[in-house]
Amino acid sequence: MSDPDDQPVPPPRSFRLLSALALAPFVALALWLAGIADDHPWRGTTIDLLKTYAALMLCFAGGSRWGIAVQAASAHGEKTGPYDLPAGVLALFIGLALFFVPTPYAFALFAVAFAAQGAWDAFAAHESRAPAWFARARLVATILIVGAMVVALLATA
Asked: What is the rounded (10 degree) CA torsion for 55, 19, 132, 150?
């Protein structure tokens, strides 16, 4: 029997709600893209919307990692890691560059970028720089986003 104090702390309700709202466009756009014909008049717009949203959300993920680094440093009275802040900004540049990569390659590279960002965020929780619930939430988000990028890749290949 486990100790009740060992039970995982769930993410705050607002975090869960906002995460669901942020993940919905990935799922909706990828499924829409997979379901429409190659000659559908909205196909190009759907691809651009999904690439734009992926670029913005990769920037957001990098920014949230920046916030984790700054919070951890101020809470523990230590300096940020040598790669924390530059890597947070790197996500911005990667997201911007991937927008201009031709389809379907962009979706494959977005999948890799989101998987890497998700792994990096999980390491933050394992290093006690972020709450444990954050790593679990990022795992779910990473699986959904990478899955959406794979669906988009297959729909545009």
From this structure: -50
**pLDDT 10s per residue in the chain (157 long)?**
445 556 778 889 999 999 999 999 999 999 999 999 999 999 999 999 999 999 999 999 988 888 887 887 777 676 776 777 887 889 999 999 999 999 999 999 999 999 999 998 888 888 878 888 988 999 999 999 999 999 999 999 9
The owner of tokens 């670029």 is 55
3-class state of residue 96 by DSSP:
helix
> Which 8-state DSSP code applies to residue 6?
G
What size, in residues, is the chain? Answer: 157
Contact 58, 113 (CB under 8 A): yes
| pTM score of the predicted model | 0.89
